[in-house]
Each structure stands twice: as structure tokens, then as C-alpha cells.
């Protein structure tokens, strides 16, 4: 019996309900690499009590970008 190598999905994203693991308590989280604006971080902090999964952070980060296409 070998231990399952699957990462522990011990958190639940409050936005999409998906399981994920936030590495913030391990001093290393994928969200550290996300370029979230200070404004977006604050809004997320007010809206949600915990961390969001990376998929949601990506979506929100993309939505947070100015809706201006550089090639238009
Ligand atoms: Zn999510």
C-alpha cells in the first residue's frame, strides 16, 4: 500500500466550490505569482473569507484588466 501522491485539496474555493490547496501557509502558493492588483486583492478580501483557487484567480485577474485590446 503506497500513499496516494495526490495533493491534499483541503480548501474549498468560495467562488466556484472546487477543492484546492493554498500554499500560503507553506510560504509558497501559486497565487504569489498571480499579478493581482492591490484593488482586486482588497475586493477579494472583502468578498471572500479565504483564498480562491488558481482558476478563479486567473479569471478574476483577466476580468480586472482594462477591457482594451492592445491591437485594436
Ligand atoms: Zn475557484
Tell me what the structure shows:
This protein is mainly alpha-helical and 72 residues long. The protein has one domain. It has 2 helices and 2 strands, in the order E-E-H-H. It has a two-stranded antiparallel ribbon. A hairpin with a 6-residue loop joins strand 1 (11-12) and strand 2. The longest helix is centred in the C-terminal third of the chain and has 11 residues, at 54-64. The protein binds zinc ion. Zinc ion is lined by residues 13, 15-16, 18, 52-53, 55-56.
Mean pLDDT: 81
Counting DSSP E segments of at least 2 residues, the number of strands comes to 2
Count of folded domains? 1
State the low-pLDDT regions, or none.
Answer: none
Shape: elongated
Q: How much of the polypeptide forms β-strand, as a percent range?
A: 5-15%
Q: How many helical elements?
A: 2
Q: What value does the Rg take, in angstroms?
A: 15 Å
What's the order of the H and E elements? EEHH
Structural class: mainly alpha
Largest sheet entry: 2 strands, antiparallel
Features of the shown structure:
single chain, 72 residues, mainly alpha, two-stranded antiparallel ribbon, 29% helix, binds zinc ion, Cysteine-rich CWC
Quick summary of this structure?
With 72 residues, this protein is mainly alpha-helical. It is 29% helix and 6% strand. Strands 1-2 form a two-stranded antiparallel sheet.
Helices and strands, with pairings:
Layout: E1 11-12, E2 19-20, H1 38-47, H2 54-64
Antiparallel strand pairs: 1-2
Bound molecules: zinc ion.
Amino acid at each position: 500500500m503506497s500513499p496516494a501522491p495526490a495533493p491534499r485539496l483541503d480548501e474549498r474555493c468560495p467562488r466556484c466550490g472546487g477543492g484546492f490547496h493554498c500554499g500560503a501557509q507553506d510560504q509558497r502558493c501559486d497565487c504569489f505569482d498571480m499579478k493581482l492588483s492591490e484593488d482586486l486583492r482588497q475586493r477579494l478580501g472583502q468578498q471572500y473569507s479565504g483564498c480562491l483557487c488558481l482558476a478563479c484567480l486567473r479569471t478574476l485577474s483577466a476580468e480586472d484588466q482594462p477591457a482594451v485590446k492592445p491591437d485594436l
